[in-house]
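Bumping my old thread because nobody answered last time. Still need a sequence for this structure:
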């Protein structure tokens, strides 16, 4: 996918998760974090919204994921999602499950909706029970904090952060059936990020009319091309989830694969997911650079994705980028160990527009020019296998001293 904005949709500069019709949001500090930053947030839809979810592949799935799967699985609808940061409620046994259900049921009652129309998400330290007295006090205050303007959206975006340095949001508009449809998203993620959903939470709102099954299909596809193509440290968490809600209030004809504007909406959703995914990669714990690896000429797209993820996940590649060292040997070594079909005689590698390898042979290049390029805040690595038509792009960040410092003291 091109990094630019296609003509089929446009970025809404001041947009947020409350821009799509029917959505309110809010956040507050209930006392789960040691700081005074918000740690409890919610998104609420005024009508039952079509809902879809994608979840971590980690075998140890946190209690909130179990509750959310159950909620969406009932009838494919949601009215709200409640999120806390500062505690993952993971590996907490039956008590953790009971606490997640209590969060869902209490919030549902406070806003007057069925319990199974509320999803729950948590992020933070694993293995500690939630301070439920503080959570319940926060839930009691939440309805009054919900609003449909950007303030509510900003409060929510802050409430979901852990070690993140910046909030991650995006909103686009697309014409469907001659009507303006909005697709917006907010996410958190900085560490324990690896393909197949990692420590990240993502929330997408849209006012498009689309059914649960169609939304699930598009969300899964968009995830494969975005969130599943990022890595920070190779660790996959217990709590990751991406939830999408569609209010249908834009008034378009229901989107299906037969709808003439299906691809336009799919592109908008994929763009929103890609922007959020890249923001997570750029905000990796201790990171100083965003790394983009574009693989072309692979046997298949799936093969290209596997190779891109191997290169972007290589600690040696990430360390070389941090040190601004044009060590292309680490790149080709990662390509070779990805377990995919490759002709070892036909690989080209570029750092930006600097060719360092052609047909698997070294190319003399200006070391000073390469050093200057690698000192920038975004590094593009291009790998052309010249072996097929498959292509893919992955994103990650450099590996720095600060990553170790942050994670050595995460619980303290």
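Sorry it took so long. Here it is:
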């Amino acid at each position: 996918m091109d990094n630019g904005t296609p003509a089929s949709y446009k970025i809404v500069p001041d947009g947020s998760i409350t821009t799509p019709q029917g959505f309110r949001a809010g956040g507050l500090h209930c006392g789960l974090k040691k700081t005074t930053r918000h740690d409890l947030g919610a998104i609420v839809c005024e009508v039952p919204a079509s809902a879809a979810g994608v979840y971590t592949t980690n075998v140890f799935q946190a209690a909130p994921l179990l509750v959310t799967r159950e909620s969406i699985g009932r009838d494919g609808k949601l009215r709200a999602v409640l999120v806390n940061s500062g505690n993952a409620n993971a590996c907490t046994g039956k008590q953790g499950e009971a606490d997640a259900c209590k969060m869902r049921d209490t919030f549902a009652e406070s806003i007057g909706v069925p319990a199974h129309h509320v999803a729950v998400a948590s992020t933070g330290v694993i293995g500690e029970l939630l301070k439920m007295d503080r959570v319940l006090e926060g839930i009691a205050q939440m309805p009054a904090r919900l609003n449909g303007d950007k303030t509510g959206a900003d409060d929510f975006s802050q409430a979901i952060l852990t070690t993140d340095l910046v909030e991650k949001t995006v909103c686009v508009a697309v014409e469907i059936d001659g009507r303006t449809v909005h697709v917006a998203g907010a996410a958190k993620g900085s560490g324990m990020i690896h393909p197949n959903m990692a420590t990240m939470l993502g929330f997408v709102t849209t006012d498009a009319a689309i059914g649960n099954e169609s939304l699930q299909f598009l969300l899964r596809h968009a995830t494969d091309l975005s969130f599943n193509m990022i890595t920070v440290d190779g660790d996959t968490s217990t709590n990751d989830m991406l939830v999408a809600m569609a209010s249908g209030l834009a008034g378009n004809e229901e989107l299906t694969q037969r709808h003439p504007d299906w691809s336009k909406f799919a592109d908008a959703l994929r763009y929103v997911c890609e922007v959020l995914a890249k923001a997570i990669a750029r905000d990796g714990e201790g990171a100083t650079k965003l790394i983009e690896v574009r693989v072309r000429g692979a046997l298949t797209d799936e093969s290209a994705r596997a190779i891109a993820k191997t290169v972007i996940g290589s600690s040696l590649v990430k360390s070389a980028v941090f040190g601004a060292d044009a060590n292309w040997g680490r790149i080709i070594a990662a390509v070779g160990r990805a377990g995919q079909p490759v002709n070892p005689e036909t690989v080209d590698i570029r750092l930006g527009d600097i060719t360092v390898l052609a047909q698997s042979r070294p190319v003399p290049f200006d070391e000073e020019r390469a050093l200057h390029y690698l000192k920038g805040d975004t590094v593009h690595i291009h790998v052309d296998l010249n072996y097929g038509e498959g292509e893919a792009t992955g994103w990650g960040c450099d590996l720095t001293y600060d990553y170790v410092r942050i994670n050595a003291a995460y619980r303290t």
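The domain at 9-282 is CATH 3.60.70.12 (L-amino peptidase D-ALA esterase/amidase). Let me know if any region looks off to you.
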